[in-house]
Amino acid sequence: MDDLRNAAEASKAWPFEEARRLAERYVEAPPAKGYLLFETGYGPSGLPHIGTFGEVARTTMIRRAFETISDLPTRLICFSDDMDGMRKVPDNVPNQEMLRAHLQRPLTSVPDPFGEYESFGAHNNAMLRRFLDTFGFEYEFVSATEFYRSGRFDAVLRRAAERYEAIMEVMLASLREERQQSYSIFLPISPKSGRVLYVPLKEVNADAGTITFDDEDGEETTLPVTGGNVKLQWKPDFGARWAALDVDFEMYGKDHSTNTPIYDSICEILGGRAPNHFTYELFLDERGEKISKSKGNGLTIDEWLTYADPESLAYFMYGKPKTAKRLHFDVIPRCVDEYHQQLRAYPGQDLAQRIANPVWHIHRGQPPASDMVVSFAMLLNLASAANAHDKDVLWGFIRRYAPAARPETHPQLDAAAGHAVRYFEDFVRPTKRYRTADAREAAALADLRDRLAAWEGGADAEALQDLVFAVGNAHGFDPLRAWFAAIYEVLLGAKQGPRFGGFIAVYGVAETVGLIDAALAGRLAAAE
Question: Structurally, how many domains does the chain consist of?
Fold first, then answer.
């Protein structure tokens, strides 16, 4: 354990760097509450996307790194701002007309458009929790609605009323002049319509702990700030939540970074200590645009899991969190294969290398062995060459290449085979475009075909790769990548592909001969 802690203290892996910064908060004395509190926030205004998962995954990585270098207990709270008013109807949900009738009502008071839960907020919360539970995160889920209505937030809300002017001074400095005229940190919830109201306040009574405003029908109304009768605007809510819970760490996207001084100031005005922050770069879709829950661009959690396991998603989240990354379907195959490459490397690494390996952070220091004897990219190319409709077709090739492999003994590979077939059907098959070979390419492919027909070297991927290289060189391809491009486009209907020697080893020498025959006879291009 001492060796592990010493290695962690020196590690440059980003979770350990953040953990060491956190440890500095309590160098002089441990926290009065007895533990270090991590928090992640979630706005359930639309269906959860992978960025939400990323916050919890990355925070958990820092939490585990902290536990490696410190004996302090830790907790992780996933806080859902489900009392927020529904400002717009998301584009990617049913029953849109019904939802429009509930605009500006708290999300937990809006009916579930899917008809499965007591509210839209509860539906979106359940979707998030289902995945977090599936992945095995250790967290405590907190609903803002319950937090406000149960009284857990009352002391801080009364303090906000008492220190209203100081908080307003912070907020007004950040607002345009026209917004300043009507802004208040408190948003009353109309006792008549149930809507969250963005209205100017006529009075804030610090002694009584009440606010006075004109309701939507013009009637002057007074409400206590406690008991769920009001909620805080989202920026003050950030700082107030930190103060109420004594949060030690929270990460959020770059779009929040300019608000960090506001959050910190409000937290301190309300008697709290600002937490450590970690700002990550935003996720982008395939067009380089920011992912939005309401737009539904980018990937959902369920979409990723249709084509890959959750560990590959965690691997994606680990890499370079300070760099903007495109999050779309094309990244999935690469993440799957890179994750398994790291699993295979782990046993041969020393301690310092292991704790810098992403799989240490994904699996809390106990990564499993990889059983992927065939890469995900290779499975996709097998599916393409064989036009596979189910994973049993792929297993026919796998067993011939690796006779000891079975679905029951290689569950990761079995799952990947199923994922590969689905990915092929949805993304590869629609984009396959075979072309006919030109004269030089046809001559080279015919030569390759004949050499393979006479091959006696078995399924030796490296030797077969050397053979492919030799044919390309013999036919004057310079650079050789033009030769491999021809192979992929003519034989696989793709712009890029695997190491072709490895493909031949898995697909089969005789089967590759048949594939070349079909291509040279024009049957592949004609079949489109």
Answer: 2
Same domain, yes or no: 462 and 504: yes
- Shared domain for 447 and 521, answered yes or no, is yes
**368 assigned to some structural domain:** no
The torsion angle over the Cα atoms of residues 402, 406, 412 and 415, rounded to 10 degrees, is: 110
| Residues whose CB is less than 8 angstroms from the CB of residue 434 and which lie 6 or more positions away in sequence, other chains included | 489, 490, 493, 519, 524, 525, 527, 528
What's the one-letter identity of residue 33?
K
- Does any domain span residue 472? yes
pLDDT, one tens digit per residue, over 478-487 is 999 999 999 9
Q: How does pLDDT run across 424-463, given as a tens digit for each residue? A: 999 999 989 999 999 999 999 999 999 999 999 989 999 9
Residue 472's domain spans which residues?
439-526
pTM of the complete model = 0.90
- Torsion sign across C-alpha atoms 320, 324, 325, 327: positive
Could you identify the residue written with the tokens 């970690």? 278
Quote the longest CA-to-CA distance of the chain.
Answer: 94
- At 507, list the tokens: 């697909």
- 396, 417: one domain: yes
